[in-house]
Design a protein that fits this description.
The complex is a heterodimer of chains A (297) and B (731).
Chain A: E1 2-5, E2 10-14, E3 20-26, E4 31-38, E5 56-62, E6 65-70, E7 75-79, E8 87-89, E9 97-102, E10 107-112, E11 116-121, E12 131-134, E13 142-147, E14 154-159, E15 164-168, E16 177-179, E17 186-191, E18 198-203, E19 208-212, E20 231-235, E21 256-261, E22 270-276, E23 279-284, E24 289-292
Antiparallel strand pairs in A: 1-2, 2-3, 3-4, 5-6, 6-7, 7-8, 9-10, 10-11, 11-12, 13-14, 14-15, 15-16, 17-18, 18-19, 19-21, 20-21, 22-23, 23-24
Chain B: E1 9-12, H1 16-30, E2 36-41, E3 55-60, H2 67-89, H3 93-123, H4 127-155, H5 162-174, H6 179-187, H7 197-206, H8 210-223, H9 228-240, H10 252-271, H11 279-288, H12 292-297, H13 299-302, H14 305-316, H15 325-337, H16 345-354, H17 357-363, H18 371-384, H19 390-398, H20 404-412, H21 420-432, H22 436-452, H23 456-465, H24 469-486, H25 492-496, E4 509-513, E5 521-525, E6 534-536, H26 544-557, H27 563-570, H28 572-579, E7 596-598, H29 602-606, H30 618-629, H31 633-645, H32 654-665, H33 674-690, H34 694-699, H35 701-730
Antiparallel strand pairs in B: 1-3, 2-3, 4-5, 6-7
Classes of the chains: A mainly beta (297), B mainly alpha (731).
Pfam families (chain A): WD40
Protein name (chain A): Nucleoporin Nup43
WD repeats (chain A): 135-177, 179-221
């Protein structure tokens, strides 16, 4: 269901059976071997019944710590070198937890299937979130979450209706801006780690969007954008006034972003993506992984 | 039989045969030509023995499960979708070129897959796997061979001239048994000395690869200066051989003329014995002349009858027309096999293609009017049985105008929903195609599953997705049941944050919420009359009982009340805690601070509270609620009393009415007069005394508590009113 590198050699993989496995990648012969396995890290109430395991939907690593979330609404904190879970929050959420990410070293963010974004402080012993945010109106399930790499108060989430929400976790309990995006579930959202003016989202509708807030539209002649790529400008509705970041800005003249669909002809869902430097990797339901090495070319 | 999944059929041993035949029959009706593969896990001790309980996994389309082929399925799906898209745009001239390109794309995918499979076969240690891979390689290569031929004949429909060139390409590409020999000879130090030298030259000639043949011959010539002249003549003949061109620069007649001329020249050299001294060269000359016997002598080098056919055409009928192919094909096959062996299935397929039978097959196909649709349905059904490839099948069904939808509906319901993500994907497919029935059923399945696993939040979000009010209600009941069992809400996070989604449920939903202090409060959301503009009613910390009773009243009055909640509220221990705010339990500190009710007019607000069965009292009762909502308490009280004393309301409804009186009795100011209070007391006594089954009434704790609470409230009210009335009169 999800995977992430723990360090250079180890990969943590979350499975739909609820098992979390650490694989070691042997670079010399390009093979994988299971390093450690937490069987049924996620499970439903009757662990002994046949259908005991619950899908582990998300994993996030901050070596040596590994946090997993699942359909069972449970949050597990593992340490790569420890056999048992360091901490487990049973029934942390009454609905399915879809994704998790680190906010700070000791705090994590989770999103669930009733449109809530929660912050959990792992130092606290209380099994309750330290902060809770939710979508107004219909509680559209949230499927993915990512935090701005430099400005940690900015968080992006993607929902079942394809909507991109930007949250400022310092204030309010509702998203700062809602941007109509994909036509179906947004499966993954990622800020570019070194160039966070760029954001990438992918969706069940088979599209992968590149959101660019770095271009100040007024500076560039518009014909530059009239290429074969489908480009659209959106002005987004914001509430916040005070923040400089382009993601939170509300100045209507600057408040434009360039959005490009990077794979116009795809029909099957793009389930996952990751971005690093000039490389973009995405995986689709056509059982293929694509690598784009010249993202900003 | 319904539970049997079409993908993996599990059949219990001793009934296996019988069940299997039923299934096969069933499937034949739906999907002709289905093949069942049988994996026997464990040995079956005896057919028919009742004790045997082996389980068989019966699968159709075993091929789908081969890993390497998945690439083929996925890639070809991409090509298919691309074609469907472009089909709408393209027309006319460019269309053919486009189709040929698509066909080539398909072939290259098959080839790539074949190579992967070959690699796998080579690298594996397991002989069984190796065998499996090799079989796949030969199937794929046969597929590609047939496809290529069909591409030439049907897709490109090459005309006389270019047709032969295409066929030559086809043969060169597919007859690769001799390739290793060619490589061996060419890589040897001096090829002309190699014992297979002449074989290689023959191969080149037979395949019409003149330049390569000449190149080899020149080496031999330089090694034999004595027969230089002979080589030169042969080389010249080979060089001059007219070939059809792909461009339109020469007409067929021109070509035929040139060819005739060249043919005569070859004939002359053969007859005057120019090559008599070298049997190799003589036989080459005979081949150039299209001498069937000479060509047939090289049978081993051609390996297949269709190679023979193409060579024969090249040297005797280079301007063959598509429709003439069938005669040459048939005779070539007969000549080549020479009665020694009978044609194999592949031969028959190729023969059918040469005979242009495909058209016939497609036209006269008995599978209804649409061969394309039949094949697509069949293929997509196969894909659907795979745990991962099923998504590809959806798109194929979409492009089957006649039965696609029906097939999709049938198949999609059988997809095992192992994870929520998969369920979401299936759901999205159904939603996009307005398959409401399936949407509902998927959501229901998922919600039930979540409920079974005690995941109320998930269950709720699934029923919200399905807009399934009844189920949402069922889930809210579960919340309340948990509440009554454990004395606390289990899923505060969810209840706290329910949005308008809860409007789905036409029932009152009670939600506990943490107010941030130690005072949790009961948040009452009256469902379908708009909780959006929430309004906080006056705090009633001083009168928790009254507030509670109001809550109670609201639940009571609804014809579709959440029973568990009512029970919880009315349980004696709860009452006790309410009545004793200093009690140690957190419950005791409950302040019924806030009630969230609709800010819209109360009349509207009360609507869902009405008994909806068309009760005669309903109109009046509704009036009572309106008055109550408008805080016209004295009028409301009067009306309530009239409802009972004038026997407008049936006795069965009195308890509800009396309970309605409770909050009025608990108001700060006295509402019921002493006389009215006596009336109420009489009504209560009538009700309890008049109940024929008194014992049952007694046993019912809740009812008893309620009666006692009423009595207490009435007594207190009476005391207050006597004091009040006495005071007023006295002053």
């Amino acid at each position: 269901m999800d995977m992430q590198f723990l360090d250079q050699e180890r990969i943590v993989v979350a499975s739909s059976t609820g098992t979390v496995t650490v694989f070691r990648h042997h670079q010399n012969n390009q093979t994988l071997s299971a390093d450690h396995r937490w069987e049924k890290a996620h499970y439903h109430v009757d662990q002994d019944t046949a259908c005991g395991g619950a899908a582990c939907t998300g994993v996030v690593c901050n070596n040596p710590e590994i946090v997993t979330v699942g359909e069972d609404g449970r949050i597990n904190l593992f340490r790569a070198d420890q056999k048992d879970a360091v901490r487990t929050i049973d029934n942390a959420d009454s609905s399915t937890l879809h994704a998790v990410t680190f906010l700070r070293t000791t705090e994590i963010l989770t999103v669930n299937s009733i449109g809530q974004l929660k912050i959990w402080d792992l130092r606290q012993q209380r099994n309750e979130p330290s902060q809770m945010f939710s979508l107004a109106g219909d509680r559209v399930p949230l499927h993915c979450v990512d935090r701005h790499p430099n400005q940690q108060h900015i968080v992006a989430t993607g929902g079942q209706d394809g909507m991109l929400s930007i949250w400022d976790i310092r204030q309010g309990t509702m998203p700062v801006s809602l941007l109509n995006a994909h036509e179906a579930e947004m499966w993954e959202v990622h800020f570019h780690p070194s160039d966070p003016d760029h954001l990438f989202t992918c969706s069940e509708d088979g599209s992968l969007w590149h959101w660019d807030t770095s271009t100040n539209v007024s500076e560039k002649p518009s014909f530059l954008h009239q290429g074969g790529r489908s480009t659209a400008y959106l002005s987004h509705s914001t509430i916040n006034q005070s923040v400089v970041s382009a993601w939170l800005s509300s100045d209507p003249t600057k408040d434009r972003m360039e959005i490009t669909n990077l794979i116009p002809n795809q029909t099957l869902s793009v389930n996952s993506l990751d971005v690093l430097g000039p490389c973009l990797v995405y995986g689709t339901d056509a059982e293929a992984i694509y690598v784009n090495r010249h993202l900003f070319a | 039989m319904v539970w049997l999944n079409m993908n993996a059929k599990v059949v219990v041993g001793h009934r296996y045969r019988e069940v299997r035949s039923t299934l096969a029959g069933e499937d034949h009706a739906l999907l002709p030509k289905s093949h069942f593969m049988c994996d026997a896990s464990g040995s079956c001790t005896g057919d028919g023995a009742p004790s045997s309980s082996c389980v068989f996994v019966v699968r159709r389309d075993q091929d789908i499960y081969i890993q390497t082929l998945r690439k083929l399925f996925n890639e070809s799906h991409g090509i298919f979708m691309g074609l469907q898209r472009s089909e709408e745009e393209l027309a006319g001239k460019s269309r053919k070129a486009q189709l040929v390109q698509v066909s080539k794309n398909y072939r290259s995918v098959i080839r790539a897959c074949m190579e992967d499979m070959h690699q796998a076969a080579v690298s594996t240690q397991d002989p069984a796997l190796q065998g499996q891979y090799s079989t796949q390689v030969s199937i794929l290569s046969a597929m590609e061979l047939i496809w290529n031929l069909c591409e030439i004949l049907f897709v490109e429909s090459a005309t006389a001239g270019p047709l032969l060139l295409r066929l030559l390409d086809w043969v060169r590409l597919h007859v690769c048994d001799v390739d290793s020999m060619v490589r061996e000879v060419l890589s040897s130090e001096s090829p002309s000395k190699h014992k297979l030298f002449w074989n290689v030259v023959d191969v080149f000639v037979l395949q019409g690869r003149m330049d390569e043949a000449r190149h080899l011959l020149s080496k031999e010539a330089s090694a034999n200066p004595t027969s230089m002249n002979m080589y030169k003549i042969l080389d010249d003949l080979m060089k001059k051989m007219p070939v059809p061109s792909l461009s339109n620069t020469q007409t067929l007649t021109e070509l035929e003329l040139k060819w005739q001329h060249w043919h005569e020249e070859c004939q002359r050299y053969l007859q005057d014995g120019t090559f008599a001294s070298n049997p190799h060269m003589e036989s080459i000359c005979k081949i150039l002349l299209g001498d069937e016997d000479a060509i047939l002598e090289k049978k081993e080098l051609m390996t297949t009858w269709y190679h023979f056919l193409v060579t024969r055409l090249l040297y005797s009928h280079p301007t063959v027309k598509p429709l003439e192919l069938r005669f040459y094909a048939q005779s070539s096959m007969d000549l080549f096999l020479g009665g020694e062996s009978s044609p194999e299935p592949l031969d028959m397929i190729l023969m059918a293609a040469f005979e242009f039978e495909m058209h016939q097959v497609i036209k006269e196909c008995s599978f209804g009017s649409n061969m394309r649709e039949f094949l697509l349905l069949e293929y997509a059904s196969g894909l659907f049985s795979h745990h991962s490839l099923w998504q590809l099948g959806v798109d194929y069904f979409d492009h089957c105008p006649e039965y696609g939808r029906v097939y999709l509906e049938l198949h999609i319901e059988r997809i095992p929903l192992s994870t929520e993500q998969k369920a979401l994907k299936v759901l999205r497919i159904c939603e996009q195609r307005q398959m409401h029935e399936q949407v509902r059923s998927i959501c229901k399945i998922m919600a039930m599953k979540a409920l079974r696993n005690n995941r109320l939040g998930s269950a709720l979000s699934w029923s919200i997705r399905a807009k399934d009010a009844a189920f949402a209600t069922l889930i809210s009941d579960r919340f309340l049941k948990d509440y009554s069992e454990r004395g606390c809400f289990s899923d505060l996070d969810l209840i706290d944050n329910l949005g308008p989604s809860m409007l789905l449920s036409d029932r009152l939903t009670f939600l506990a919420c943490k107010t941030g202090t130690d005072f949790p409060s009961l948040k009452l959301i009256l469902s379908h009359w708009g909780i959006a503009p929430l309004q906080t009613l006056s705090l009633r910390q001083q009168q928790p009982l009254a507030s509670l009773m109001q809550t109670l009243k609201l639940t009571q009055n609804s014809s579709r009340v959440c029973c568990p909640f009512r029970k919880a509220l009315l349980s004696p221990s709860f009452m006790h805690q309410i009545a004793n705010p200093q009690g140690g339990l957190p419950w005791a500190r409950f302040g019924w601070e806030r009630f969230f009710v609709g800010s819209e007019g109360s009349a509207k607000a009360q609507q869902p509270l009405m008994p909806r069965c068309g009760h005669p009292v309903a109109g009046k009762y509704r009036e009572f609620h309106r008055l109550y909502g408008e805080k016209r308490f004295p009028e409301a009280a009067r009306l309530l009393l009239t409802l009972m004393t004038a026997h407008i309301a049936p006795c069965s409804f009195w308890m509800t009415l009396l309970t309605d009186a409770l909050p009025l009795l608990e108001q700060k100011e006295v509402i019921f007069s002493a006389e009215q209070t006596y009336e109420l007391m009489r009504c209560l006594e009538d009700l309890t005394a008049g109940n024929p089954d008194k014992r049952k009434f007694q046993e019912d704790d809740i009812e008893t508590t309620k009666v006692e609470m009423l009595r207490l409230a009435l007594a207190r009210n009476l005391a207050r009113v006597i004091v009040k009335e006495g005071t007023v009169e006295g002053s």
